[in-house]
């Protein structure tokens, strides 16, 4: 995840001097540092959006945020954004842990750091990630996965030591994943933060925390889309648009966006989409529509970005992959001839025996 975010940041630096950023004009760097130094070891009372139960509307209330412990960072949030996952967790999925502060997308400034935090300091701009990276375990060093063995995806709503850094009127508050961005302050393990360049547009930076980076990384890092290849993207939400952008930056020649929302047409084109399919305008399966558009060939890469189970098979069928299963058949028998199958398998020219029932 961190790798994906860093790659996107390198492409999207706005080259704006830090002093010209509106957020810095409103905060004032000196004002911020004065406050952080005076409260770095104190509990901070601030506002946050709190969800008290499954399906209940969030309420903005005053909460208390503790100082960071060892390897942790307290962050003053500047912007946060909303992901569908936040809504799911507020409905009690996958565990009804309440009261909780939602939010896992955002951008903020380091207010204070705990012991053993080396890579970050007060005043650094950071983005939280729901997957941490130690940089030293087998998975981190492999360069093939972002599933760190030391800092996994946390679903219990607590810090790595099994406690919370937030409370409301003496009651423990649950985090969302490794953070809770819908608050003025939050505490995060340093390994779940990415330091960003001060030239990036802060109001857009929060979008990199989750969906968009996931899609971008799927095309760039996971699939490694090649230059001149063809791509189909089912669903043009934040993840799907990230795939479009990743495929474009990889040099894909044809990028087909698929969505029932006609408004995604123009949006998709802005992210590199070359063709658009609205499946609601046809009774044909999506895979058939893609094959028609590609003269029966299909695409080199297909990305399913809706989370709808029934579309997974459709995504597979949009590709060019053809498996020659029929050539595996060398012998066919009736069920009554099952003993014969044993003898056939002993023959050197036998690959698969089909039993007709």
UniProtKB/TrEMBL annotation:
SUPFAM superfamilies: GroES-like (SSF50129), NAD(P)-binding Rossmann-fold domains (SSF51735). Keywords: Metal-binding, NAD, Oxidoreductase, Zinc. Pfam families: ADH_N (PF08240), ADH_zinc_N (PF00107). The keyword Oxidoreductase applies. PROSITE patterns: ADH_ZINC. SMART domains: PKS_ER. It comes from the Eukaryota. Residues 53-355 form the Enoyl reductase (ER) domain. Its cofactor is Zn(2+). GO terms for molecular function: oxidoreductase activity; zinc ion binding. The keyword Oxidoreductase applies. InterPro entries: ADH-like_C, ADH-like_N, ADH_Zn_CS, ER, GroES-like_sf, NAD(P)-bd_dom_sf. Homodimer. Belongs to the zinc-containing alcohol dehydrogenase family. Class-IV subfamily. This is Alcohol dehydrogenase-like 1. The gene is VvCHDp001150_4.
């Amino acid at each position: 995840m961190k790798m994906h975010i860093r790659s996107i940041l390198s492409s999207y630096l706005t080259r704006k001097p830090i002093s010209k950023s509106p957020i810095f004009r409103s905060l004032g760097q000196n004002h911020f540092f004065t406050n952080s130094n005076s409260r770095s070891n104190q509990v901070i009372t601030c506002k946050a959006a709190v969800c008290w139960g499954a399906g209940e509307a969030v309420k903005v209330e005053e909460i208390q945020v503790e100082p960071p412990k060892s390897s942790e960072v307290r962050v003053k949030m500047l912007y946060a954004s909303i992901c569908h996952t936040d809504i799911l967790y507020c409905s009690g999925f996958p565990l009804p842990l309440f009261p909780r502060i939602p939010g896992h997308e955002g951008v903020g400034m380091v207010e204070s750091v705990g012991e053993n935090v080396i890579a970050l300091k007060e005043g650094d701009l950071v983005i939280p990630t729901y997957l941490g990276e130690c940089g030293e375990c087998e998975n981190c060093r492999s360069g093939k996965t972002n599933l760190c063995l030391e800092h996994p995806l946390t679903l219990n709503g607590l810090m790595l030591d099994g406690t919370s850094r937030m409370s409301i009127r003496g009651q423990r508050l649950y985090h969302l994943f490794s953070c809770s961005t819908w608050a003025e302050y939050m505490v995060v393990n340093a390994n779940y933060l990415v330091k960003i360049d001060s030239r990036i547009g802060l109001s857009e930076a929060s979008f990199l925390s989750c969906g968009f980076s996931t899609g971008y990384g799927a095309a760039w890092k996971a699939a490694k889309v090649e230059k001149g290849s063809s791509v189909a993207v089912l669903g043009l939400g934040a993840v799907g648009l990230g795939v479009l952008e990743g495929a474009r930056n990889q040099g894909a020649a044809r990028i087909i966006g698929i969505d029932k929302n006609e408004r995604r047409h123009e949006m998709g084109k802005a992210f590199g989409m070359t063709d658009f399919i609205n499946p609601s305008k046809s009774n044909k399966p999506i895979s058939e529509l893609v094959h028609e558009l590609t003269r029966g060939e299909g695409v080199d890469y297909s990305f399913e970005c809706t989370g709808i189970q029934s579309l997974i098979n459709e995504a597979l069928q949009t590709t060019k992959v053809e498996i020659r299963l029929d050539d595996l058949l060398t012998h066919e028998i009736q069920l009554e001839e099952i003993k014969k199958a044993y003898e056939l398998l002993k023959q050197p020219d036998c690959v698969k025996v089909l039993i007709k029932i």
